[in-house]
Write a structure and sequence with these properties.
By secondary structure, the chain is α/β, with parallel strands linked by helices. It is built from 12 helices and 14 strands. It has helices at residues 50-57, 79-84, 101-111, 116-129, 145-156, 175-190, 202-208, 226-233, 247-258, 280-293, 308-316, 320-323, and strands at residues 3-14, 22-34, 39-43, 65-70, 73-74, 86-89, 163-167, 194-199, 211-216, 219-224, 236-242, 263-269, 272-277, 298-305. The protein has a 6-stranded mixed sheet with strand order 6-7-8-3-9-10, with helices on both faces. It has a 4-stranded antiparallel sheet with strand order 2-1-4-5. The longest helix is centred in the middle third of the chain and has 16 residues, at 175-190.
Length: 324
């Protein structure tokens, strides 16, 4: 394992010195194991504790309790060795806006102990790998958001670390730049680099990661591969909205569908019912017949494949889209 974390906790004290000090428990006992060479996602809404967790693993924030080892090194006792073996790209990117992009790369190399010649060679190598050579001499402030993020990742890879942390790597990017950055992450995995990324984008976690944890309120609520987690929820989801939608009608429909043998589970969300089925295409006609038999008029009904949002909903009782 390249990352092993057990009962990792972080409590912040706010308001100290103003007579109203209080504790905020940002991370509440996270367990996590990341294998070498995989893309691992920490998925959850804003404020769930994702960034705090990554900052503890990267040694930028000391845990309040628990233990973690990164690349075999203890994050508290061997923090220097951890930092020397990782790359880190925060939400702000860490690129100096006023200097040419290539100089950002060369500075990172020099700070890592490279000679000027070595740093220049490494910078040119990374710019070629990320298709940035033509814009390398432009001040970073003149680059697009996607170009800055690619340069930021390149800076994190100057020392060719076996592990790189990407904290919300595509926040604020347009769809095309997001897709381009996803491709760069896949290339890193193909080259053997381990990647741990945080995100609140469902499609990002689904498209990129080999495994993931969903974090909510500072705790891991579920862990696994995207496909396995979606399969555990159900193969398909039938979403029903009744025509009149009274509370007693919804409850009647919920009990009715729960009793059907082809339905795994029924969850009420506001004025909707979500029925989880193994085979939605075959089960949908039966859902319609059952509701019609009891005189329950339907306003709308949809059939969808399970998503990671359904996984989040199942384990937390609310939608990740709403929570984010």
């Amino acid at each position: 394992m390249i990352i092993e974390a057990h009962e990792l906790r972080k409590t912040f004290v706010v308001g100290r010195g103003r007579g109203k000090a209080r504790e905020i428990e940002a991370v509440r006992g996270i367990d996590m194991e990341v294998e070498r060479g995989e893309v691992f996602a920490v998925l959850g809404p804003n404020g769930a504790g994702k960034t705090t967790t990554v900052r503890m693993l990267a040694t930028f924030t000391q845990p309040t309790a628990g233990q973690a080892r990164v690349n075999g090194y203890d994050v508290v006792k061997e923090a220097g060795k951890v930092r020397a073996s990782i790359g880190y790209v925060g939400q702000l990117g860490g690129v100096d806006e006023m200097t040419p992009a290539i100089e950002n790369l060369m500075l990172a190399g020099r700070l890592a102990g490279m000679s000027k010649k070595q740093a220049k060679a490494r910078a040119e190598e990374l710019m070629a790998a990320f298709a940035l050579t033509e814009i390398g001499n432009r001040p970073a402030r003149t680059l697009s958001g996607g170009q800055k993020r690619r340069f930021a990742i390149a800076v994190g890879l100057v020392t060719a670390p076996p592990l790189i942390f990407l904290d919300e790597p595509t926040t604020g990017l347009d769809p095309q730049n997001r897709a381009n950055l996803w491709e760069e992450v896949r290339k890193l995995r193909d080259q053997g680099t381990s990647v741990l990324l945080t995100t609140h984008y469902l499609d990002e976690a689904d498209a990129l990661c080999d495994r993931l944890v969903i974090v909510d309120h500072g705790k891991v609520v579920v862990e696994g591969t995207p496909e396995a987690l979606k399969k555990e929820v159900a193969g398909d989801i039938v979403t029903v909205r009744l025509a009149d939608g009274p509370a007693e009608g919804l409850e009647q429909a919920r009990l009715l569908l729960t009793a059907e043998p082809y339905v795994r589970e029924v969850v009420q969300e506001d004025e909707l019912l979500r029925a989880y089925l193994d085979d939605g295409e075959r089960g949908l006609p039966s859902v319609l017949r059952a509701l019609d038999r009891d005189g329950l008029a339907i306003q709308s009904i949809t059939l969808e494949r399970a998503t990671l949002d359904d996984v989040f909903l199942k384990h937390t009782g609310r939608s990740l889209r709403d929570a984010a």
